[in-house]
Predict the 3D structure of the following.
Amino acid sequence: MRRFKNNDHLDSYVGFIPTSNNSGEKERYGEMTNRKNKRLMPKLIQASWVAIRSDTELLMKYETYRKRMNGQKAIVRIARILLRRIRWMWLNKQKYQKAEC
């Protein structure tokens, strides 16, 4: 985890970044890039489905995203949040604690 300078570099490694098409004036973002870790990304998405069933904070975030987009895109956002939590726990040597609501 220490080899990644920040969360954005880790997101890029896993594949949680959109493709971008840039011209001189316009910047467009598309679907997720094909450059990804093909083993890690699906596992994080599956773990996110489990996480929203047990962590109420993630469930509330999922429901908020779900109002704006379809469930597949919303769960990718949750997977990205989960990845950032995993990185923080790894670097700080802490255990995962669910939010108490």
Observations:
- The longest strand covers residues 27-32.
- The beta strands are 18-22, 27-32.
- The chain has one domain: 7-92.
- Residues 7-92 form one domain.
